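Would you mind giving me a polypeptide sequence along with per-residue structure tokens?
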Amino acid sequence: PEWGVILNGVSIGRITDAQYAEIRRTVLRNGRIAFEQLGNMIQTGLTAAAKALSNLPLILVWTLLFATVAFPEDLVSLVQETQRASVQEILAFLRDLAPLAIALSGAAMGLLALLGYDFGYRDCYREAVDRMVRQHCKVAAVGTLDLIQMDTQKKG
């Protein structure tokens, strides 16, 4: 089979199935690209963790505001108990609260991911394959690359 190569909606050439498979094989066996992808995944994780940590105070403030409106009498008793509590009791309470805060941050990160926030993730393999296909077609322009299967059977 043969593939039509489309860049930003414009046909720029053709590539055989064997040539495309060889490009993909070359990219998958390239250790530099694997290392680049690993670094990008680590960077993405660090970005997500930093975003979660920076959002944690905001989440806690909104949780406290919600608790104030929804459960005002419980919040008053919690404040009174906190005033009477020792430092060790407060630290124990915060340790018990940490898993909930982490879960809320994780849920917020999941929601951001569902809404399309990518945290800086790049598919280095896809970028390398696209670059090599553009080189095969002798095109320097960068953009959205699509392949469509061409009908190679003769009619008649």
About this structure: Helices lie at 17-28, 31-70, 72-84, 87-114, 124-136. The longest helix spans residues 31-70.
